[in-house]
Amino acid sequence: MFFYIDPGTGSMLFTILIGVLGAAFYLLRNVFVKLRFFLSGGRAKADAGRVPFAIFTDSKRYWSIFKPICDAFECRGQDVVYLTASPDDPLLKEPYSHIRAEFIGEGNKAFARMNMLKADVVLSSTPGLDVYQWKRSRDVRWYAHILHAANDVIAYRMFGLDYYDAVMVSGEYQRRQIRELEQMRHLPEKELPMIGLPHMDALRAKLTAAGEAPAHPTTVLLAPSWGPSSIFNRYGRRLIDALLKTDYHIIIRPHPQSYTSEKELVEGLMRRHPANDRLEWDSSNDNFETLRRSDILISDYSGVIFDFSLVFDRPIIYADTSFDKGPYDAWWLEEEMWTFDTLPRLGMQLTEENCENIGELVDACIHSDAFREGRQAARDETWANIGESVERAVDYLIQKRGELLSAEAKPAQTAAAKADGARVPN
Description:
- By secondary structure, the chain is of the alpha/beta class.
- The chain has 15 helices and twelve strands.
- A six-stranded parallel beta sheet has the order 3-2-1-4-5-6, with helices on one face. A six-stranded parallel beta sheet has the order 9-8-7-10-11-12, with helices on both faces.
- The radius of gyration is 25 Å and the shape is elongated.
């Protein structure tokens, strides 16, 4: 007989199992530690095996965030354990002396490892701490979250950041959103250091070093996300047909997941519109050169929108996509999300009605001074400390660890002083 367990129930059962195993683990370990302490005459160290800093990522796609941070820790001679759930994470091959990179398994196996971690400070871009499978370890002193995009913190699924001790932000609107949620949910205030955006700083530095792209015809980049609401699924060949009626050079860069989840759709579009002198299909791993030689981007809800507009300083056309706030923290707040308030300042909206006239939209966006001013305003609001984010992030983490260790040392020092005083004869 076979039994079916739906994904929600399976997740709940796994969470319960992890909780039971975790409790048993800590109980047995506490017994072992006390026994070792007794046998060593009180000399055993309670913090054996603890690492000063740990970085956790659930995907290699956040490599661009953590690589600069690991480089900065390396330069300062600080020991860090980098824990990744991607077996092909590029950081696993970096020749560091102070950074130890380790693949800890995928999915629940990775979370199980994180639940037993011993570290002073953990940095991660993964939301959902202490909500689902990933639980706060009793042996971690501080959890800090770092954003992986220039957008709203309320775009995470509900309670995604509630149980972090700190969230490194890049704009005042993010601080305001977090404080409002904390008040509504009666949560203690997190520390919210304003650091900026490491991945955008790195992209900006790379662009500065590369300089302007070689002379090229005016180029339109179509880079949709994937899924039922993506540009390919909503507009498909209609949009590509309309683009090919313009005089512009066209680059189409499908989302990597589309080659797997929407293989038939993508292959059908590629057969209908094969590459030629005016049309490219781009599937390269690194999108930097494609972005550098594009003059305008057409996308939907892909994070590349803000990278392109704010770093490369060029206009966008964004698809008319619906956003259901239901599963997200945005549902709790009445205000418009910063992302959707900002998009009209960066470019024009693609709709069913104007899709056939895409050439006119491209012309209007490329020659608009208003969108140039809008990009600067968006930078001011969401990209603090341009060029300084990595150093600020590492400064904060090192300082916080020092504060935690100092706070824990004071009671022990006081107790020792009292004990010494009690032994002094009158």
